[in-house]
Request: fold
Amino acid sequence: MFNICRHISKLHPNNIRSSSFLLSFRNMSSNYLNTSDSGSTDLNLNAAEKLEKHCFARFDDIEKSPQDVREYRGLHLQNGMKVLLISDINTDLSAAALSVQVGHMSDPDYLPGLAHFCEHMLFLGTEKYPDENGYTTYLSQNGGSSNAATYSLMTKYHFNVAPDKLDGALDRFAQFFIAPLFTSSATDREINAVNSEYEKNLSSDLWRVKQVHHHLAKRSHPYSKFGSGNKSTLCDIPKSKNINVRDELLSFHKKWYSANIMYLSVIGKESLNELEEMVVGKFLEIENKNVVLPDWSRHPYDDEKYGLKVMILPIKDVRSLTISFTTDDLTKFYKSAPDSYLTHLIGHEGKGSLLAELRKLGWCNDLLAGCQNILNAFGFFDIVVNLTQEGMNHIDDVINIIFQYIQLLRQEEPKKWIFDECCNINEMRFRFKDKEQPDTLVQNAVTAMQIYPLEQVLSAPYLTKEWRPDLIIDLLTELVPSKCRIILVSQSFQEVTTETEPYFKTNYGTEKINAETIKEWENCLLNKNLALPLPNAFIPDNFEIVPLDTDFCKHPIIILDTPILRVWHKQDDQYLKPKACMAFDFSNPIAYVDPLNCNLNQLMVELLKDQLSEYLYDAVLAGLKLQLTPKSTGIEFAISGYNDKQVVLLEKLLDHLFDFDVNEKRFEIIKEEYTRTLKNFKAEQPFQHSIYYLALILTENAWSNNELLDALELVTHERVLNYAKKFFDRLHTECFIYGNVTKQHASNISVIVNKKLESTNSKLLPLLARQMLKKREYKLFNGDSYLFENDHKYHKCSCVQLYFQCGAQSDKMNIMVNLVSQILTEPCYDCLRTKEQLGYIVLSSNRKVNGAVGLRIIVQSTKHPSFVEDRIENFLENFLKSIENMSIEEFERHKDALAVKKLEKPKTIFQQYKKFLNEIALAQYHFERNEAEVIILRKIGREEFVQFFKNCISRNGMERRVLSVHIISQQFGVDIETAEDKLITNMDHHTKITDLAQFKSSKELYSIALPYLDIKAKGARSKL
Ligand SMILES: [Zn+2]
Reply:
C-alpha cells in the first residue's frame, strides 16, 4: 500500500494529538506593537484607539507561502487571548475556530468525561442566545455547519458560514465562552448523546486498544483517565454520590475556560481592520482567569511497564506489533525536528529499508513510524508493524530487525544530506501549497498557535531550518529495548488475555520479556540487507508554469478519440501551480461479470500496488500521489502532484501493468489480507451496514461480501495471472489530463498510452460502446414500501435507514432533493438526537447514484429500528407542518444557503480535477452543473416545494417510494428497559425483501440522463 511514513503527516498541525501553550509570544518582545508605527496606514483613528485599548500586541508580519494571497494578522488581546485573523476578499465561505488548552486530562477524578460533556453542552444555549438549537439553526440557514472535539489537553470548536453572516455567527460562538446556560433539562438529555458516542466506539478496536494504553498508565497519572465518559461515569455514579453534574459543568467551565489559554482564528471577506473590530468587540469579554497549566512532564508509565509485552484481543481479525518508546514532548525542537529525521528513515519503504526487508521475509505488509506529542507534557515514539500470519511466528525476530535498523542509524550517524533533502521537499510543499479550505485553515491554525510563535504559525509546520545532529543522537539513545513497551494485537491471543479493561471490556494480558531476549536486542549486530536510502531522484526541479495554449478552452475537451482510446485535456488557468493530475480509466467488462472475476480484479490491483511500492515510495515522498483503484468497470490509475517527473512514472507504471507477473508467496500474503478485509466488514458500524445493504439492493449489478468470500476458494495464483492477461489484452482506455500541461504535452502522453494499447488485441477487436454501459438503479413503483432486515453481531447499537427514492437524476430533481435535505437536516438532528436522544449518529442527506436520486435518514440507536423508524415518520409529519407554515423569508434564506454551498469554488487544483473527472466518468459532461442547478433553485417556490415533499416523502404521498433497511443488534433485547422500546411498532405496511433475485426481477431500471454535451459513448460504434 502506498503508505507515507508519518513524518509527513506529522507536519500538519492538525495531527498533533494535544497541546499546551508556551512557545507563542515567548521571544517576540521586539515585535510587540507600538500602536503609533503599526504599519497599518489604513487604520482609522477610531480603530486605532480601540486597538490601543484592547490589544496588547499585534503582528502583521506572519510568514506565509509566497503565492498565498490571503492577508494575515496576529493579535494578543488584553484578556490574554491570542488571535489569528485572515482576510480573503474572494472567500466564498467564512470560518472560525477556537481552541482552549484544557482536555480530558483535567477531568476531576470522580467525573471521567466531564471535559467532553462540557464540549457537547456549550452548543445548547447561552444567556444571550438561549435557544437550544439557535446556533446550529443560524448556521444551517446560512450555508454553514459546525463541530467540536475534545483531546487530552485541548478542546477545539469550529464553524463555517456564508461570508456575510460571519458577524452573527461569531457573536453566537463567542457566547459559548462567556455565558453558557448548561440548563438542567439539556444536561439530563445530552448525557445520552455522550453515552451513545461511547457505545458507538465500544466495538472499535482503535478505541479499545487506546483505552488499554490509558488503563496501564500509573493510576496517579492523568493519562490513565477515561476521556469520553458514559452514562455511568457522568450520571449514575455521581447521582449515587450526590454529585450534581450540572454544578460540576459550571465550575469546570468557570475554572478552565479562561481567555489566557484560548486561541482563536477567523477567516472572512472583510479587511483585517474590520475583522479585528469584529473579533475584539466580541471576544474581549471572555474572562481571563489567569489559568496556570499543570506540569505533566512526568512520564505516564511505571518502570515495570517497560520490558513488557502487552497482548490485546481485537474484535476484527487484525494483527499488529507496536514498539512504543516514551519520550519528552519533542515539539519544543520544532526548528530542527529530530523526530522527523528518524521517522523519515525508519518509516522509509524504498530499497534497503526496514519495511522492504520485513516484506521480503514475508513477515509484514505495512509499517509506520510516528511521534505523538502531548504538548508541554510527554510524547511517544511509535513504530507500528502489520504482521502477516507468518510474521506472528517471528515476533521476536521482527523486533530484532527493527533494533538492527536503529543500530544502523547509530552507526551511520546523522547525515546532513538526508536532512537537507527532507528540508527541500518541505520547503517546496510550503512554496507551492494549495489554498486551504477556510475551515481547515482555521482549525489547523488554532492548534499550531499553541506550539509556534505567532509569526511562524503558518510556516513552522513546514520549514525545519536547524541542523542539530546532537538532538538526533540524543533521541537515538532513547530508542533502546529497555525503554520500550511492546503491544501486540491479534485474535490468536485468546488464551493469554485473561485481564479485562473496565470501560471497553477489552481482554488483554501481559508478559515479561526475559532478560536474555532484551540483551540480544540490545547487542544486535548490523544486518547487511539494511541500508540508508539513496538520494531521491523524483524531487522535481522544473517549476515552470507553461504558457497558455492559444486555443485554450474553458472546459475539458477531447483531443484524441479512437475506438480504443479517448483522451480529455484541460489546461489550468486558475491555480497556476507546477502541478498536474491525470487519470487513466481501463475498462474491460470481464472485471465484474461474477464474484470470481471481481476478486481476481481486486487482487490484481493489490498485487500491482505491492510490487510497485518500493519503487514508488520516493515519488510519494517527493509529492507525487499515485492511486490504483479497482472498479466494477476495470481499474483506474491516477497520478497527481508536481508535473515535472510524472511522465517517468507513467512509463514505469504502464510497463508494470501490461507485463504483469507475480511472486507466488506475495500472492498468498495479499490474498490472506484481502480475505480478512472482506470478513472484517461484519464488525463495521451498523450505519455502514445499512448503507452497504441499500446499495446492494438497489444497484443493477452488485456482489455481496459473502458472495465474494465464497468465490475466494477458486482464486489461485495462476487464475490471477490468466485474468490479468485477458484484462490487458482487450480494453478501452479513457484519460483525463489536467493542470500545468499544454495540449501538445497531453498529446505526447496520449502517444505513450496508445503505443501500449496497440501492442494488445484491443486494436483488432475494440470493445463496443454497448459493452461499457453505465450501471443503473432499480426503480421502485409509486406507493412501494420495502423493508430489509439484517442482524449485527458485534455492536450494541442497531440502525435504521429510511430511504425515499425520488426519481431519475435531472437538474431539477437533483436540486429539489438537495433543498429538502438543506431544510430538513438541522431540525432532523435537533429532534431525533438533541430532543429525543435516539442516538449519537443521526444523519440525513441526499443520495445520488447510478442515475437516480433520493433522500435518506439514518439513525443508529440502542432502541429497536422499528421504534426509531416510527419516530422518524413522526418527525417528518411535524416537519411537513413546519414547512407549510414557513415564512417566505425563511424559505428564501434556505435557498440562499444552499446556493452558497453549491457555488463554493474548488480551492485546489486537485478538487477542480475531481469535479471535471466526475462529469467525464459519469459520461454526463455537465461541466457547469452547479451553476445550472442554482438557476433552477432560484425559481422554486415554497408551494411547489411543499407539494414535492407531500408527494414524495410524506406518509401518504402519491409518489412515495420507500426502502427501509434495519440492522438489528443481536445484543438487542438484553438492554431494553423502557416501556417504549418494548412497544415495537408494527411494520406490516412494508413488504419484506428476503430474496434479492426475486426483488430485482420484479423491478424496472431507471434510465440514465442523456449527456449534457452531444458526445457519443466511448468505444467502437455499434454495427447494425
Ligand atoms: Zn462527543
Notes: The pocket of zinc ion is lined by residues 116, 120, 197 (CB under 6 Å). Confidence is low (pLDDT under 50) at residues 1-45. DSSP finds 33 helices and 28 strands in the chain.
